[in-house]
Structure formats: structure tokens, C-alpha cells
Prior knowledge:
Elements lengths: L6 E4 L5 H12 L3 E6 L16 E5 L5 H15 L4 E4 L14 H29 L2 E6 L12 H21 L4 E8 L22 H14 L7 H13 L6 E4 L1 H20 L1 H5 L8
Helix pairs in contact: 1-6, 2-3, 3-4
Amino acid sequence: MATDQPVWFVTGCSTGFGKELAQAVLKRGWRAVVTARRPETLAEFAGSIPENILVTSLDVTSAEQIAAAVHAAEARFGRIDVLVNNAGYGYLSAIEEGEDAEVRAMFETNVFGLAALTKAVLPGMRARRSGHIVNFSSVGGLVGFPGIGYYNATKFAVEGLSEALAKEAEPLGIKVTIVEPGPFRTDWAGRSLRTPRTAIDDYAETAGKRRQTIHDYSGTQPGDPVRAADAVITAVESSNPPLHLVLGRPALDALRAKLETLQAEIAAWEQVSLGTDFPQAS
């Protein structure tokens, strides 16, 4: 087995970005730890070169499964070079409509699971003074939208955690990239998506309309997960990888619009902002 090929550990490989990224890694002759909550959903990887792949079950909300998967990966390949925290899902709800159990469950996967797996992989990367952590966020981690506020909150959390981690890990030779896709043809807007049991009519034109729009465009989104996988690999292989990797025109347009609005708002309220400091001594 060639030990000079990088080892990628990818979560959520049964569909979407995780599946395409793991397949792209293997097609390049690299090694991949391919994970999903239900390993039977990973049948498409059966034809991969056996010495290049490790398929294992992983529910990122289980500390025991995280420890077992990381141990198995390091025992099989000796190291983990790239960790891709892709596992996650969405919940479409106005803030008032949100059900506590659903919201907390989403945070457990999208935020706490991501953090726990990152913590499990970091010791090996620190010891080697090398590694790359790729955290899948969303344009919804940069821009808030009606009807997905709780999902926004999980992804805003991923953004803050990842930016802090990048500053902590850079002196140790570890890189961090946050991936921020817009609408892509993954299962996010399909069977993986969750919605509240009860809708409130007063939010029909805001949260309700966006919920319907997301349902309607499932399967016709402009983003191609295969091209997204190639973009992530290009970023990781770069000598100067980005901290933020925005994917797709809709995401770029939404982010640029937010930046323009934010800059204008900051300028308009600059004097009020500055007026809150203690007066400088003359």
C-alpha cells in the first residue's frame, strides 16, 4: 500500500457532498475513510480498491462511535491528513414555530458532533504538525434567511468555531477551510429535510414561502455536487488554501449583497458606534 497518498476522513458519505467528495478522493488514487450512520448506504463504494478505503459506521452524535472510527482510521492508515466534517441536515421553521427537540437534535449533529470529531482528530494532526480540517457550513452560515433561522444558527456556530480554530491551529501546521455552498442538488432539500408539525399562518409570506420554495426546487438547484467536490480538493491542495470557500453563484450573490448592506450600515452608524468609548484623555 502506498503510504505517501493522503488520507481523507469524510463524514456523511451516503449522499450529496460527502459521497461525491469521497469518490473524487478515491478516483485520484488517494485513501479515504468513508463514513455514514448506516454503512449499508455506502454500497456504491464496494468497487473501490480495498487497500485505499475504510468504510465504517459513524453517528457524529455518539462519542463512542467517534472514538472507534478515528482509532480504526489511524490503525488502518497510520494517520488522518484531511478531516471533512460534512454530516448535517436542515430544519425549516420560523423561529416561533421551532420545536425544541428538533432544534436541539440539529445542533447535536451540525455543531456538537462536528466539534467532537474535530477534537478527536486534532491530537494526531498536532503530533505531526500537519493536517487540514474542512468544515461544511453554508451560505446560511453567513446570511440569515426567513424560515431557516435555527439552521442558520447551527451554521453561524460552525463559522465562529472554525475561524477561531484556524487561528489556534495555524501555528501548529494545521489548516482550516470553511465550505459555504448555496443551493446544490444534494439530498439536503429532499428526504433529509425536516419541518415543524405546526405552521403559523402569520409567517406564511416569510418562513412559509421560503419553505415552499426550497421544497419546489429540490432536484433542480443550480449547484453540481461533483464540481463542488473538485473545488474542495482544489482548495485543500492549494499552497494557500482559503479560510472561506463560497460555492455557487447564488451563494456569491447573497454574500456580496450582505457585505454591501453591512458596510453601508456600519458607515451610517459609525459615529454612534465610536461614541460608546470612554473619552480619550487630552
